[in-house]
Design a protein that fits this description.
Length: about 350
């Protein structure tokens, strides 16, 4: 991903805890960015590509800093200079690995090369971390992640009173926050997380699940016309064609499975509507405990639709939405049980 995206995500890791110093937040943010310093070799390689002795610094050393060794070096430096040593070091290590995860997910080059990460280098080449579904650097998910990270950065600045600008100038940071709060006034008691209720998490997950139905669930690669007639040594480099499958691709009005596939994406909508407007207590309790099972069933149905092909954007969006919905519904059910137990204890004679 872009270094800007990495920086924003690193700042979010650093910005969530309230009791970190400016230096500690700088360590955590830097851990999400400095691995990309190994990409600076591209400048020398481009400058010398037409010379008799080109410098292949990017080709040979790209991802040299994307290793466990470099991650632990950054962690050790944070531990040595931070005030809250263990906590800061743990967040630095998490921020560094978040960088690796983002590169694995969305770092495919323009030539289609996935740039595997040599995690155990220079000691071993056994772990070359890569993902076959990796999207390109300029793909829409990278822009979506950047936009979401930027929005959350503004939200944290509005709530906490500091932003990434403070890493360079505290005075400029105060001016930025004052301008932001002047545009969106902050009342006493307001917090950025006030909207993050379990119900709103389920609503957001339901919207994401509904959106996922419009994206391909899976992708299948087939040889392009004429590739089968190519010589054996040429077949490995023969072009391929991709076909994409959607939730409705194999829908048949006579087959129940087609309806189940569509309902896997739509079932939260009527349940959330009943939670908002329904009055029957028994029905609400049944739906409360039914929702985690529906999440698991929907995830399994989507898995069955993609088991013979490569899962694609729609499947990953759906699984992400179902995971968030599942956690929120399990927590809600657990909270309901705890509340019921407390009521019984309060009603029972001492």
């Amino acid at each position: 991903m872009s270094p800007v995206t990495h920086a924003l995500l690193g700042w979010l890791v650093a910005g969530v805890p309230r009791n970190l110093s400016r230096r500690e937040r700088a360590f955590i943010t830097a851990a999400a960015v400095v691995p990309d310093l190994d990409g600076l070799g591209a400048i020398a390689e481009l400058a010398t590509r037409d010379s008799q002795t080109p410098l292949l610094w990017f080709t040979e050393y790209h991802h040299a800093f994307h290793t466990a060794l470099f991650g632990f070096v950054l962690t050790g430096l944070a531990f040595a200079f931070a005030r809250r040593r263990w906590f800061t070091a743990a967040l630095v290590l998490a921020s560094f690995h978040l960088h690796l995860l983002c590169d694995i997910a969305g770092g495919r080059g323009p030539d289609g090369y996935p740039w595997p990460i040599p995690y155990l280098a220079p000691f071993s080449s056994a772990w070359q971390l890569q993902w076959e579904g990796q999207w390109a650097l300029n793909a829409w998910p990278n822009f979506a992640v950047t936009g979401a990270a930027l929005l959350l950065t503004f939200l944290l600045a509005w709530d906490r009173g500091y932003s990434p600008v403070g890493l360079f100038s505290e005075r400029a940071d105060r001016a930025f926050v004052e301008t932001l709060r002047g545009r969106f006034p902050k009342k006493e008691g307001d917090t950025a997380m006030a909207w993050l209720t379990l119900t709103n998490v389920k609503r957001a997950a339901a919207v994401l699940l509904f959106v996922a139905i419009f994206f391909p669930l899976s992708r299948c690669a087939r040889p392009a016309p004429g590739a089968a007639n190519a010589q054996p040594q040429q077949q490995a480099q023969a072009p391929v064609e991709y076909t994409y499958s959607y939730a409705w691709s194999r829908f048949d009005v006579t087959e129940p499975g087609g309806y189940l596939a569509i309902l896997s994406f739509l079932w939260p909508i009527p349940i959330l509507l009943y939670e908002a407007f329904g009055k029957n207590r028994t029905a609400r309790v049944v739906l409360l405990w039914l929702q985690p099972l529906l999440c698991l069933g929907a995830a399994w149905m989507i898995y069955l639709r993609t088991i013979l092909e490569d899962p694609w954007t729609g499947a990953y969006l759906a699984w992400s939405a179902l995971s968030a919905y599942f956690l929120a519904s399990v927590y809600t059910a657990g909270a309901d049980v705890c509340a019921a137990v407390k009521r019984k204890r309060a009603e029972s004679p001492a």
